[in-house]
Amino acid sequence: MKYFGIIAVFTLVVINVSVAAGWGYRASDQRRWAVLHPACGGRQQSPIAISARQAIPISIPAIELIGYQNPLPGPLTITNTGHSVALTIPKYTSEEEKKGFRLPYIFGGPLDNEYEIDGLHFHWGDKNNRGSEHTLNDMRLPLEMHIIHRNKKYRNTAEAMQHPDGLCVLAFFYQVVEFDAKLLSPIVKNLTAIENFNSTLQLPHTFSLSSILSGLDTERFYTYKGSLTTPPCAEAVTWVIFSDYLPISVFQMDNFRGLLSNLNLPLVDNFRQLQPLFGRRVFVRITSKNPKFKKTKLHYSKWDWVGHKKSENDVIDFDE
Ligand SMILES: [Zn+2]
């Protein structure tokens, strides 16, 4: 009887802590996301399994990365959110905008408007054989970076999340290499300072986005319509996933794995389970390297994102 009491009290405490924290990544936690955030149970969810064999080749422009070579406005901050490491980029003041300063933005590819950078974060694994959210040809990579962009026709992220064309996330896979790669070091070398949940660090130096993507082939990518991969799971995301890998060393991966979650446990395996496609199509951009696809060329103005026509009643409500 005494033991029952102890177990009951312990269980109560654990439940309270996880409710306070909002949501978690354990399989049992993920199944409950849709309770508070109904969109998480929708039919256009992310991440998904990407397969080169099943993707539909399509002739679309490359993604233009405008201002990616300029230093980001400072001070940049990194935060341990308890679910990830997020880089926050300050907005330019109206004075600075008058002088011509602009945040980096993207257009081209599947996008029919300009999308401005909103921030970036990472998903990683406890071991090198897992961590990425999307899988590529059944492979899970140890780290995936998401650079979030907001459609400029919406004033802020909250508004953009209400619209199917609200956000574009560029996703990058990392592959483990023997020696430290310099690319991510402005972030990685400072991770020890934000070991604890909710801690934030102002980075001493700013850097450009192209410096952390240096050498990546951006010509070839997959694209599909999906969602945020964390609650509220808004189905507002055009995903652009590059097939080329960026490098990261084991030592650098360990810096990510040394972070602590909101429950004071190692912050690892912060990736969502794969979601069903439900008739969605995944496209792959035709490049000069795969010209054999030219015969099956499909003009992007005629493409449809979803295999079947949605009925009037099939409208999904977004939850914030
Ligand atoms: Zn993410």
From TrEMBL:
All residue ranges annotated as the Alpha-carbonic anhydrase domain in the record: 21-286
Gene Ontology cellular-component annotations: cytoplasm
PROSITE patterns: ALPHA_CA_2 (PS51144)
Origin superkingdom: Eukaryota
GO molecular function, one term: carbonate dehydratase activity
Family matches, as InterPro entries: CA_dom, CA_dom_sf, Carbonic_anhydrase_a-class
Pfam families: Carb_anhydrase
Similarity remark: Belongs to the alpha-carbonic anhydrase family.
Name this polypeptide is given: Alpha-carbonic anhydrase domain-containing protein
Organism of origin: Bombyx mori (Silk moth)
Record lineage: Eukaryota, Metazoa, Ecdysozoa, Arthropoda, Hexapoda
